[in-house]
Hints:
Layout: H1 10-23, E1 32-36, H2 42-50, E2 55-58, H3 61-74, E3 79-82, H4 91-97, E4 100-104, H5 107-120, E5 125-130, H6 146-155, E6 161-166, H7 175-188, E7 192-194, H8 201-206, E8 211-214, H9 216-219
Parallel strand pairs: 1-2, 1-8, 2-3, 3-4, 4-5, 5-6, 6-7
Helix pairs in contact: 6-7
Amino acid sequence: MAEGRRAVSVCDVLASIRRVAEACGRDASEIQLVAVSKQQPDDVVEAALAAGQRVFGENRVQEALQRWSARRDRFPDLTLHLVGPLQTNKVRAALELFDVIETVDRERIAARISEIGKETGRRPRLYVQVNTGEEPQKAGVAPSATAQFVAACREEYGLEIEGLMAIPPADAPPAPHFALLAKLADEAGAPKLSMGMSGDFEEAVQMGATSVRVGSAVFGARPARG
Ligand SMILES: *Cc1c(COP(=O)(O)O)cnc(C)c1O
């Protein structure tokens, strides 16, 4: 590792997840760490791989292809999550690369995933993104539309939706948003919960997260996008 660069702390984050899970009577093995590697330099990503981390998140399809296409051959056990917005013209590329798409949030995307899935046989695991804070600038279905949208994904497009994902508002306590997401997941019969980031993953684990998406706490602060 380059001198002066802080070590990646996959192990520290895993230890925190384990500690919080045990403190609230959960089995830590039910909680997946998705290491969000967007914008991170290659050396810290390699360090995370060397530490044994195999589940990664990216928020841009093109950037993810560049980083992971070749690494897939070196690490056949990788699991890649798309955690950023998906455009209809990127669905084909996203289905080729990603094992999990966490940001299904409108019928056009559901339809396209279904169509290209049939054509290619690629069936990634899927989450519906919910805009729990109903923020106009943020992606995701409205809380009140969630159950209906999940049902439409299943019935009209033949998609299996395994859970819900949310990014709570940056300037509000996250706990009510985590609680809302858990309630909506229960109502929709999509029990997996992708919630919690560097600043609040411990709280998310307490509130039932089955995966946490942690970037800077694993890799260090992201360099600005060039
Ligand atoms: C960047 C990002 C994360 C990770 O954020 P950190 O605060 O660095 O942990 C998690 N989820 C999504 C959707 C992201 O875009």
